[in-house]
Each structure stands twice: as structure tokens, then as C-alpha cells.
Specification:
The protein has 16 helices and 19 strands. By secondary structure, it is of the alpha+beta class. The protein folds into three domains: 124 residues, Uridine Diphospho-n-acetylenolpyruvylglucosamine Reductase, domain 2 (2-Layer Sandwich); 127 residues, Uridine Diphospho-n-acetylenolpyruvylglucosamine Reductase, domain 3; 212 residues, 3-Layer(aba) Sandwich (Vanillyl-alcohol Oxidase, Chain A, domain 3). Strands 15-12-14-13-17-18-16-19 form an eight-stranded antiparallel beta sheet. Strands 5-6-10-8-9 form a five-stranded antiparallel beta sheet. Strands 1-2-4-3 form a four-stranded mixed beta sheet, with helices on both faces. A hairpin with a 4-residue loop joins strand 5 and strand 6. The longest helix is centred in the first third of the chain and has 15 residues. The radius of gyration is 22 Å and the shape is globular. The termini are far apart. Bound molecules: flavin-adenine dinucleotide. Flavin-adenine dinucleotide binds next to strand 3, helix 6 and strand 10.
């Protein structure tokens, strides 16, 4: 039975039903109307035949809001929104921006927690229509345009028995994910961060010129692409990615423990994580029990949820990876255990990160992160505070074992061994202040143990100092030098910062 083809179809069906893709459709459709205002910036862009939407247009606000996947829509307003449909159009739009002193912000999948692609003034250049994927099966290289979503790449590569460590949520764009680092499926086995699997890239520079970057050509741009994140000084249109043989026997074990058994979870992971097989991905969460009512008291609802994904090529291999957990105190003290469950990679997306789960819930949204050697200490220090989270969707994720080595040749340069992300997700706009304060306090428990932060999950508007802490001092310094060299006029927006 072609189980994987069935599950691929199922997951793609789910993807199509997501609001995110509805929004994507709207982005592609444009508004088909003339400008309501006679703004000078509405003038045609030479070499671009697509729709230009300006602030005076009737569809502007709905289009602007659809650019950001979650429901916290920033109060930042570009003058123009354009969707490029080819690499040549990207070059034409950037050239036009440079000649007319307009700043450019890039958007690929729109999943950045801060909505970084929405900036005040200038052009928001949406690259989501660029979704071509070409696969060289022999060389195990995927050539991927920046608007491709996680699930699209996984589905295409599976046709050639290959895969790539994409984001865990199916609709995350490859562009922002890769540029900022990328903690993907099976990442501990795949160089730690997905960005380190970029073999080359095609870029549009600030003057509108098109260049390639790899180890031989423009090596300084190649360095910057691998980690430069949501402040890169160029538009990447295409990535050449190293693909890997598809694990055919993924097996998953999950355990639920009451939150007051947190010490059992963390002390066991402290012992097991250092010696674990790198193909075993372990995610440890603090979360609200999905079976409990939303307003259940913390002692009846807040839980530790541990999931271990074994990416083996045979069931025996995967079972051997999961065995130490099955024999550990975590399994003994769990109130719920689902062990050794078979999955295809395509099935993991809807099961663990669908819009029905905290990891993929499309609410109002804010996130902070730590790259740390002490995830257990962070979870402990944060536990009492976590109990106070009003929303049942708020959660904390610790990913054990980033398996990072110092990568002197890439801009991504945070080298602590683990990741912790805290996600405030809620529904009611009136509670925005409460949840931002809640997240601030959560971050205060993470910071003492943080060796750095994850640039895809920091809020540069509230904490500009954290952006720099995503990089080693040497990488940060080199990024500034390269920005000055490649974008001296500041055509591209840099990292999000507080309003001037
Ligand atoms: C539900 C959800 C699940 C997530 N899961 C994961 C996960 O499993 N692992 C993980 O590591 N992260 C995850 N993330 C975080 C994700 O990696 C970042 O949010 C990332 O920025 C999203 O990329 P995007 O292209 O969708 O976002 P966008 O908002 O479109 O892009 C973010 C920024 O990246 C820059 N950018 C994007 N494309 C380009 C380009 N082509 N050229 C130049 N600059 C560009 C721009 O500055 C842009 O503002 C998740 C986020 C969400 C909301």
C-alpha cells in the first residue's frame, strides 16, 4: 500500500483548508482595481507587470493583514505591496526601489512572530508566489524558491525518496525559516540548523543586480545567507539545499506527566540527551492538557508533554532509539503514554503541529527564545509562572540537542546545545497587554540561562538588544561590514527595532 502517498494527499488537503492558504490565495489574486489615490509611488514599476496595491486602495488593509499568518497584525503600513512572480520581477522591483529611495521589506511565508515583513513606508515585496522546486535526485540537491512552504518541500522530495529538515508547522515559509537558522524535523541529525544545509543561493542585491552565492562565488554573501535572518541586506530568490534519504520507519513515543513531575522529566532528559542517537528528536513541552477544559485550575490542567521522534530507516533502529525513554522514570511516572507509534513524515505535520494544536494555533501571537545549555533549569524556573497562563494555548517548547558545532564559515553562530521557546498565544485583543507582560516575565526566567537567542523568535521592537545576542560578536561585526558593503544606501530594512 502506498501509505505515504495517501498521507501526503491527506496532509495537503488539510493545508488547503487552512486559513493561511486562503490568505495566500487572496495575496495572489490581487485586487484588480485602480488606485483610489493618485500617489506618485503607484506609478508603474518598469519590468513588473503585476498588481501594485497602495494605501489608498480598497483592498489594501485586508491584503496587508493577510501578509502576517497569525492574528497579531502589526500597526505598520508599507506604502506599496507587490507580489513578484519571477526572479526577474524581484530584480525590477528592487531596482525601482533603489532608484526612488524606497525601502524594501521582504516576505516569504509570513510566519515571523513579529510580522517583520510589515514595515512603515516603502515597499513590502511578497515573494510567496515563487514556489518552484527542482530536485536533482542523483546529487541529492533541491533547488527551492523562497515562497515554498515546509509541507510542499517535504511532499515533493518524498517523491524521490528524499527529505529536508523543514519547519515543524506545515505552512512556514522556507525563506524566513532558512535565513534565520531553522530548527527542522530531525534537525539534530541534519547539521543542527537547517541553514547549514544551504549549498548555494540566488540573490537580488540592493542595486537590483542578480548574483549567485556559494562556497566558490561570492563566499561572503554565502556566509551571510546562512543565518542573516530577518535583517538580511538582500532578497534571496532561490536556495540550493542538500537533501537527505527519507527515513522510512519513523516511530514516535509520547508521554504526559503532571506539571509537578517536571523534575522527573528534566532530570531524565539531562541524563539521556547527551548520549542519545542524533536521529532521535526530543521535544519537551509545558502546556495545557488538551483534554482539560480551558478554565480548569492549573493543578488539573498544566502538564509536561514529552514527544520523541525516531527517524530510523527500519523499525528496529527506531525502536532502539526510543528504548531508553521507555525504560526511564518518565515512562514509569507518565499518566498517559503512547509508545512506538509508526508515522510518515507527512503525517507528523497534522498530528503534532496542526492549527488544532498549540504549536500551529493561529491566534494572537508573541514569542521569545533562548539558546541554552540548561533547558531543564529554564523549565523549572518558569514552571510556577507558566501555571498562571490564562490561555490554554500558551506553551513552552524545549528542543533537546541542537547538535551544533561552531560553524565559523556561517553567519549562524549561536553554539549552545539546546533551544527553549516560549509562546504566548491568545484570542482576545483586549488581553494583548496581559500576554505581552506574561511573555516578558517568561523571558526573565529564560535570560539567566541563555547563551543567545534564536533570531527567528525574538521581538526586536521590544528587545532590540536581543537581536545582536543571536550572533557571536565576530559574526555580528562581520554582518555590519557586509551590510555597509552590499547595501550602503539601506534599501533593505534591517532587523525590526523600536520606532524612532
Ligand atoms: C506556527 C509556527 C511554527 C513555526 N515552527 C518553526 C520550526 O519548527 N522551526 C523553526 O526554526 N522556526 C519555526 N517557526 C519560526 C519561523 O522559522 C520564523 O517565523 C520564520 O521567520 C518564518 O519564515 P517565513 O518565510 O514564513 O516568514 P516571513 O514573515 O515571510 O519572513 C520573515 C522575515 O525573513 C526575511 N525574509 C524572508 N524571506 C526572505 C527572502 N527571500 N530574502 C530575504 N529576506 C527574507 C524578511 O526579513 C522577513 O521579514 C515557526 C513559526 C510559526 C508561526
Amino acid at each position: 500500500m502506498d501509505h505515504s502517498a495517501n498521507s501526503r494527499r491527506m496532509a495537503l488537503k488539510q493545508l488547503v483548508s487552512l486559513g493561511a492558504i486562503g490568505a495566500l490565495g487572496m495575496l495572489r489574486a490581487g485586487n484588480g482595481q485602480a488606485a483610489a489615490s493618485g500617489s506618485a509611488t503607484k506609478a508603474a514599476i518598469p519590468g513588473f507587470a503585476g498588481q501594485i496595491t497602495t494605501r489608498g486602495d480598497a483592498s489594501y488593509e485586508s491584503l496587508r493583514q493577510a501578509l502576517v499568518w497569525h492574528r497579531s497584525k502589526p500597526q505598520r503600513y508599507p506604502d506599496l505591496i507587490v507580489q513578484a512572480r519571477s526572479e526577474a520581477e524581484v530584480a525590477a522591483i528592487v531596482r525601482h526601489a533603489a532608484q526612488n529611495r524606497l525601502k524594501v521589506a521582504i516576505r516569504s511565508g509570513g510566519h515571523n512572530p513579529t510580522g517583520a515583513s510589515l514595515r512603515d513606508g516603502g515597499i513590502c515585496l511578497d515573494l510567496s508566489p515563487l514556489t518552484d522546486i527542482k530536485v536533482d535526485k542523483q546529487r541529492q540537491i533541491a533547488s527551492v524558491q523562497t515562497g515554498v512552504r515546509a509541507i510542499q518541500l517535504v511532499a515533493r522530495l518524498a517523491e524521490d525518496d528524499l527529505t529536508f529538515p523543514t519547519a515543524h508547522c506545515m505552512t512556514v515559509g522556507m525563506g524566513g525559516f532558512l535565513l534565520g537558522g531553522g530548527i527542522g524535523w530531525n534537525h539534530t541529525y541534519r547539521s543542527g540548523m537547517a541553514t547549514l544545509n544551504i549549498e548555494g543561493a540566488e540573490l537580488v542585491l540592493a542595486d537590483g543586480s542578480r548574483v549567485v552565492a556559494n562556497a566558490q562565488e561570492n563566499p561572503d554573501l554565502y556566509w551571510a545567507v546562512r543565518g542573516g535572518g530577518p535583517g538580511l541586506f538582500a532578497a534571496v530568490t532561490r536556495f540550493q539545499l542538500k537533501a537527505y534519504p527519507l527515513p522510512k520507519a519513523i516511530r514516535v513515543s509520547s508521554y504526559i506527566l503532571p506539571l509537578d513531575k517536571l523534575a522527573t522529566m528534566t532530570s531524565t532528559l539531562d541524563k539521556l540527551a547527551p548520549g542519545k542517537d542524533p536521529r532521535l528528536e526530543i521535544l519537551a513541552l509545558l502546556m495545557h492538557n488538551p483534554e482539560a477544559p480551558a478554565d480548569a485550575p492549573p493543578e488539573k490542567s498544566k502538564i509536561c508533554f514529552l514527544t520523541a521522534f525516531a527517524f530510523g530507516y527500519s523499525a528496529e533502529e527506531s525502536r532502539a532509539m526510543l528504548a531508553p525513554l521507555a525504560q526511564s522514570p518518565i515512562a514509569r511516572e507518565a499518566t498517559v503514554r503512547e509508545e512506538d507509534q509508526p508515522f510518515t513524515l507527512m503525517e507528523l505535520f497534522p498530528k503534532f503541529f496542526s492549527t488544532e494544536t498549540p504549536g500551529g494555533y493561529m491566534g494572537r501571537y508573541a514569542a521569545e527564545s533562548a539558546i541554552t545549555d540548561e533547558p531543564g533549569k529554564i523549565l523549572h524556573d518558569m514552571a510556577d509562572h507558566f501555571r498562571t497562563a490564562r490561555s490554554p494555548i500558551c506553551h513552552v517548547i524545549a528542543s533537546y540537542g541542537l547538535n551544533l558545532k561552531p560553524h565559523a564559515d556561517a553567519c549562524y553562530s549561536s553554539i549552545a546545545r539546546h533551544y527553549v521557546g516560549c509562546f504566548a498565544i491568545w484570542d482576545d485583543e483586549k488581553e494583548d497587554d496581559y500576554y505581552h507582560r506574561w511573555l516578558e516575565k517568561s523571558a526573565s526566567y529564560m535570560d539567566p540561562w541563555a547563551k543567545g537567542h534564536y533570531v527567528n523568535e525574538v521581538d526586536g521592537q521590544r528587545h532590540p538588544e536581543r537581536i545582536q545576542l543571536c550572533y557571536s560578536p565576530e559574526s555580528w561585526q562581520r554582518l555590519q561590514v557586509l551590510r555597509q558593503k552590499y547595501d550602503p544606501q539601506g534599501v533593505f530594512h534591517s532587523y525590526l527595532a523600536p520606532p524612532a
